[in-house]
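Incident log, support desk, overnight shift.

02:14 A customer reports that sequence design results differ from what the structure should imply. Their input is reproduced verbatim below. On-call engineer (initials T.W.) acknowledged and began investigating.
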């Protein structure tokens, strides 16, 4: 059953990419890191290689391609030539082939692709599959903030990703949760691994975490702190195998590792999903 052996992925979005964080992660048994070609002002790969190149072989390293530097900012592209070149560049900058490369938020481009969406997405997937076949990475996947815009485009696509990454947690809305479930069902659910991301909706210091008590989702409500309970619940909203979470503090990462011991009350999770669905449909709570 998905989520029975939860794992943590150290996400480097907004991270300072400090060596002490990576050594702390290894000490805690967190051996997967997730970054992107676009993180840290498109310098993430180079900085990782410079400050922790000797540590990287001890990690499973995932990254993402799809955003590119452009005059005045950033642009998104699913052009297969650019994607393939980006995977090649990632390997050069990291000093090693990444273990996993995600197609980063394909919906960004597909919203404008219209009737050509299936063709555009299929070519992008083929580019990453080709990069994998050539040994530029070990596997490929799709990371999506909102899968809704491309759900209708994936039924006829082959090859398929090995991993999908979607938003997870208590702050994810009903529509996005439904879209994530639909994506998992269409591209799985047995044959793919599912990762969650952004389990706190941006920050554990947000006022929402002092106003709600996520421990209601635990069988033993006194076992964990509120933030730990929110993190543990994220593995079931939707059901995922791993959660990518960002921090610059090894101590915080240690607290999240401790949260994995929490036992989820699945009936409460189902009741919560039903409440979300009712609200979406305009039904009284």
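02:41 Re-run completed on a clean worker. Output:
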């Amino acid at each position: 059953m998905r989520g029975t052996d939860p794992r943590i992925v150290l996400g480097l979005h907004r991270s300072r990419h400090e060596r002490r964080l990576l050594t702390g992660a290894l000490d805690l048994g967190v051996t997967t890191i997730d970054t992107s070609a676009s993180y840290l002002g498109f310098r993430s790969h180079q900085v990782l290689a410079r400050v922790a190149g000797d540590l990287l072989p001890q990690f499973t390293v995932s990254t993402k391609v799809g955003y590119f530097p452009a005059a005045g900012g950033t642009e998104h592209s699913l052009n297969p030539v650019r994607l393939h070149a980006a995977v090649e560049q990632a390997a050069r900058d990291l000093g090693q082939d990444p273990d996993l490369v995600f197609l980063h938020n394909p919906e960004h481009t597909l919203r404008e692709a219209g009737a050509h969406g299936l063709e555009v997405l299929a070519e992008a997937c083929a580019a990453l599959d080709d990069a994998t076949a050539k040994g530029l990475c070990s596997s490929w996947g799709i990371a999506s903030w909102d899968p809704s815009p491309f759900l209708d485009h994936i039924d006829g696509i082959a090859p398929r990703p090995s991993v999908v990454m979607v938003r997870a947690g208590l702050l994810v809305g009903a529509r996005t949760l439904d879209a994530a479930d639909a994506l998992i069902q269409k591209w799985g659910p047995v044959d793919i691994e599912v990762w969650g991301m952004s389990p706190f909706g941006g920050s554990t210091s947000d006022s929402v975490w002092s106003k709600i008590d996520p421990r209601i989702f635990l069988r033993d409500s006194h076992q964990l702190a509120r933030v730990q309970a929110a993190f543990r619940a994220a593995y079931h909203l939707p059901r995922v195998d791993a959660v990518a979470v960002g921090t610059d503090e090894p101590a915080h990462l240690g607290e999240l590792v401790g949260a994995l011991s929490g036992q989820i009350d699945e009936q409460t999770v189902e009741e919560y999903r039903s409440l979300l669905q009712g609200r979406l449909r305009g039904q009284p709570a």
